[in-house]
Amino acid sequence: MFFVWLRKYCMRFYEFTLRPIKPVPPLTPAQARIKGLKGAVERDKQQLRNEKERQRQQRDNESKRKEQQRKSNALKTFK
Questions:
Q1: Inside any domain, residue 31
Q2: How much is the pLDDT for 8?
Q3: Spatial separation of the C-alpha atoms in residues 62 and 47, rounded to whole Å
Q4: Alpha-carbon distance 43 to 70, whole Å?
Q5: What tens digit of pLDDT does each residue of 32-45 get?
Q6: What is the percentage of the chain residues whose pLDDT exceeds 70?
Q7: pLDDT tier at 3 (50, 70, 90 boundaries)?
Q8: Residue 18 resides in a domain
Q9: How far apart are CA 1 and CA 23, in angstroms?
Q10: Residue in 61, 63, 59 with CA at minimum distance from that of residue 51
């Protein structure tokens, strides 16, 4: 049973080597421009995510600093 399944659904070693690897043809100028623009969009999205994350971390750090300063001032008033 297993060997029937294996024969039917699994490739044999020689099947990997018989298939030639097809070269990718060069892009036309229009295709290259579209591909470049799509890449630019993805890079811009990632840069926007990174900047938002940086600003969020900066805001969190500032609020932590203020909270720490508030606690420090509260302790000074009791002394």
A1: no
A2: 67
A3: 22
A4: 40
A5: 999 999 999 999 99
A6: 72
A7: low
A8: no
A9: 39
A10: 59
First to last CA, the chain: 83
Residue 58 lies in a domain: yes
DSSP assignment of 7-74 equals HHHS--HHHHHHSPPPPPPPPPHHHHHHHHHHHHHHHHHHHHHHHHHHHHHHHHHHHHHHHHHHHHHH
> Between 56 and 1, where is the model more confident?
56
Closest by Cα among 42, 22, 21, 40 to 32: 40
In angstroms, the CA 70 to CA 77 distance is 11
Radius of gyration of the chain (CA): 30
Q: What tokens appear for 12 in the block?
A: 């044999």
Structural domain tally of the chain? 1
Q: What residue type is 16 in one-letter code?
A: F
